[in-house]
Amino acid sequence: MAATDKAGLPTIGLLAYTRPRALPVSRLLTTSRLSLRPQPDGSLVLHGLDLDRVVDPDRPPTTRGAEAEELLRRLEEVVSLAERPEIARLQIGRRSIPVDGKTVEGFVGEGEWFYAIATHSGVTLAPLLAEYCVQEVVRGGRVEELSSFRPERFAGLSQRPETPRATVPGDQ
Question: Organism's domain of life (predicted)?
């Protein structure tokens, strides 16, 4: 898996949570500069993909800092609000991403006793990956579509590949 311990890594992400209040947002909204997700309690989760590269896990941003202010400014650009929400907390997330950015699926090592699936695209790919897993583990077949996603692609590597950075919403 890709490293998650240094500033600027593609695996580091910043989420902002607003205080609960009545807001005119009832669905997910994704733009090129802001993603927002309403919560059942009336709060919002805000994310700006481009802001992730400045987040340092050793120096977490504050609810009144530049990152929080920028997320609120972006929110005001896309949603008409009677008054500005307040950021209740910021959370640094660590994305689970295979080191080369691609899904890993298949049996690991010699024999067929340990099957692994690692992906950052679980919400999107889960039904397909589960079906492939059933075909290989339960039915004993080999799924050709997985040939370039097998764990053995990492065998013999002398150095860790660079993890690609998501550049547009949906890539992450």
Answer: Bacteria
Over pLDDT 70: what percentage of the chain? Answer: 95
Q: Say whether both 123 and 161 belong to one domain.
A: yes
C-alpha dist (Å) from residue 40 to 49, 76, 153, 162: 23, 21, 42, 38
Residue 43 has pLDDT above 90, yes or no: yes
Question: Sign of dihedral through CA atoms 119, 124, 125, 127?
Answer: positive
SS3 content of the chain, % helix, strand, coil (to 5): 25, 20, 55
Rounded CA separation 112/64 (Å): 52
Pairing outcome for strands 12-18 and 44-47: antiparallel
Domain presence at residue 78: yes
Spatial distance between the Cα atoms of 117 and 131, rounded to a whole number of angstroms: 12
Q: How far apart are CA 41 and CA 61, in angstroms?
A: 24
In a domain, 89, yes or no: yes
93 pLDDT more than 70: yes
Q: Which residue has the tokens 């120096």?
A: 59
